[in-house]
Task: structure prediction
Amino acid sequence: MFLTNIKVLAVGLAVIAFYTIIAQVIPQLESEVPEALDLSAGVTPEVLVTAGEDLFMGGAGCTSCHGLGTRAPNLRTDHAGEGTIGERCGSREQGCKEYLYESMIDPGAYLIEGFPPIMPDARRQLSNEQIWAVVAYLESLGGEVTVTADDIGASASAPSAPASSGAAPARTATTDPVQLLTENACIGCHQLEGAGAPVGPAFDGMGSRISADRIRTGIIDPEAEIAEGYEAFAGMMPATFGDQLSAAQLEIIVQFLAARQ
Amino acid sequence: MKHLKHPFTQAVLLIVGSWAFFKFVIPLFPGSAPVPQSVVLQFTLIAAVGVLVYVSENEERWTQFKAPITATLVDANKKWLRGGLLTVIPLFIGFVVFQAARPTVGSTAQLRSIHPAPPGQITFQGRSLALEGLENPLRSRGSLEEHYETGKAIYYQNCMPCHGDLLDGQGHFGHGFNPTPLAFDRAGTIDNLQESFVFWRIAKGGPGLPREGTPWNSAMPVWEDFLTEDEIWAVTMFLYEQSGLEPRTWGEEGEEHD
Amino acid sequence: MMIDFLTLLQAAAEAGRSYGDFPAVGGRGAVWIAAEVHLMFAAFVLGVPMFAVITELIGIVGKDERYDKLSKEFTRLLVFAYSATALWGGMLLFLLTTLYPAFWGHMADIFSMSMWIYAGLFFVESFTLYLYYYGWDRWKSGRAKWGHWGLGLLLNVWGTIVMFIANGWLTYMMSPPEGTTVAEGLPDGVTMWNAIANATWMPINIHRLIANAVFGGSIVAAYAAYRFLAAKTPEEKAHYDWMGYVGTFIAIATFVVLPFAGYWLGREMYEYSQQMGVTMMGGFMSWLWIVQAILIGVLFLAANYYLWTGMGRIPGAERFLPYTKWMLLVLIVCWIVWGTPNTMIASRDEFAAMGGSRHPFLGVLGLMSGKNTAVNFMILTTFLSFLMYRRGNRIPTVTWAKAGTLTQGAMFVLSSAYVLWLGIYGYFVPTITRISYSVYQVAAVLACIIGVWAIDIFLMRGSQSRGEIRWGEMPDRSQYAIFVLAVTFTWLMGLMGFARSGIRQHWHVWEVMRDTSDRAVTPALGYAANMISLTVVIFLGLVAFIFWLGGLAERAVSKKPAPIGQPQAVTGG
Result:
């Protein structure tokens, strides 16, 4: 009887082991959890802050100005003795998160003294959820995170938000060069037919000064060669346009600028 | 001949024979190709299980089959054979293990899903687009003939070098890639998929594949950077029209095709 | 009481902690094990009453004491398994509330009412079971016996309702009604009933109902196989040989219908969400189906093996022996076709030699048409084996015997040809049509089975016997085949459970409630296989323990030797 028990046990375990081994020898594949977070429903503050930090440090390109202290106020560190952004935004009358959200979608509204008005409307690059994620991250820097799923839902349907549904990042399919230059906020710093500020070399007559190749390089890698007379502004132009524009759009802009005699 | 009747000989011959069949004979079939090692192993294992069932399903055959094994293990006059086997078998297993563990210059075997699951929604040229339930808008707008012509032009300008003018994946650049470009001219390709799936694959290309599709292992460009939405839909339509395949449909609507 | 308890749990859920942790296997692992073991026990206690009632009925109608005894023996296993089910259910509940409080809160929000009904029915069900089992010898004859049988029927009714309610919860997780949100629960106008009766509810209900019978049959057969091996007297051996045969027969016969329910479920899933469907069949889970094919191949082979070895104890069945090797060949070829991966594992060089991820020749077999054809041939072959087994010791005496057999043969040939034709033609039609072909194929096979069976019943009426089946004269090997069947069924259940649950990927409730824990990634097959094996070992270990307990009780009761009736005339099952 003892032998039978052992045999039954052995057969059972051998069958189980056989299946287990088959499942082990094939290449192992986990399902991917998609990166793009759905931040609208039942989102926790931790998730928002983590997503916001990723955006702040990476894709949204905030650090190319904020954090150096010369082009824009410091956010992660002390600015003018008032502490980090999470600490100092509480003194705003409309409330911390409202202030932060407002200044991201309408940067001109709360211009800090001593800084040029160069910040683009965040809605050009980020979806509504993403903007709130960044707000939550900024709040977490020294303050308390008060952003909730309700904020995201409420502002998405508010009339002030862009007309397109919820997520409205910058890129459109347009092929009109002037519209592209406007949408990507190039005309914030480069002058074109009277519009824009003289922070970078003017677009007017650019084609007579430099070649198309040089323009292309300049857009994709702004630091590669600084135009004469603009050394003080070196590093101001975001290096994100290469990713932001499609290949076709980039080419349209390059050809348009090269034709500005 | 007498030996051939013995179940033990038969078993050995059957297993070796089926292995040889999978390994050497299947590639000889017209239009066939070498079978990957993993598949040969799997098939041979199944055949071996079948052989085991064969020798043991009937009492007489089972006794006969066991006889030489028992004799080898027990008989006094087979001491040398026994010793030999006890040496050779562990050595052989050791050799197999060594072969498996030995570092080689070849790439490891990998699993590459041909039709990976699409995401629920994608960001197409900066706009979110829900893939689920997405229909080809061109099918209900304008002249189909015209869309087909547009798609055709786009295909021959952009896709033909790799996917071939016969849609068979044999374009003149196609041979330079591994894995080779997909063919669209046969059942089991795009007819298994909805048009929105094809749209997603064209728009996002190789880099947009999920992990199970090995995104590092495809030369397909990200066409949303070069084509507009309508152009991608047009070329999708062209693929189906030209290959004579129908997009995958669901439910009642599809059953009308029967 | 119950309400207090649930509000307490909900309060705990809202206290902020979204996820808990569990030592060693992690939170998800703990819930996985508890849920799967609970499910296996539940399947057993739901499956066994189904045929306990049927065998009791056969016993009453056929006035055959043997079947009544068998039915009671089934039920005895049930009494012990029942408490194990409740125990693991309770364990699952506590693990869910402590490890996934936020998720549990959401479910309680929507389903609280049905949860109370569920608990209430569970009580009623267990009392019915106790009445059924302990009243067996009391209500033995006449009208009381019918009343007793009614109790058994009632037991099934309760069990089915209980399962349907629980299925409502879990199918809600896969296919919640449109517009459901985490914060506000169900959308306006949708009631709890709509959430229960969601898109995949009925397919899962039917699928599980059938699968429970399969599972119950195979576990009972394994019990019988063990008792057979342990038996000391020829009478005992004969009894358990017969019981093993009945269990295996139930398992295989119901198993044959299971693919039908499976297609329906898959179709509903595809229609609910394309993404879910593609993830299941072609996405990261595609290899799971190859493993499934291997398991089901083992099932078919083991079942046929059992029947073939069983022919050794049937006088006259020797005349069929020469055919078995050809049937084996068909089974193996079909198994290979079914096991052909669509997405092959290969190195880069091998891919290059093949010209892509799909083999130009074998790739054809890897498609649905080929695989379905293979499965249907396996079903037909198994049925043929069974027919041979049944005919083994009989000589038909009816005048139309020859014509009848020829008709049966023609039915086999016709349905095989039809299945094959659809299989080949399926490569040349749109996918949606091809999918409907798989339904036609199964329908043809089922029609053949029913037709042949019906003819056979009349054909064998008043047949002569070539000699009695020598119950008990079975080689031990055949009993191990039954063990292989039971273990494989259990493992298969674990695997399919992973598939069903895993396609939700990183969602607790599909596209409503996201899994935001650090264990949201759906694991690879290797990890899943480890978990499945663990649950199978736990379950079978406990089952063995329960059976051993049953044996103890039996020995204690029957100190005075109770003769086990030698099974008499063979009625075939």
In short: Strands of chain C lie at 345-346, 394-395, 464-465, 507-509, 513-514. Residues 315-468 of chain C form one domain.
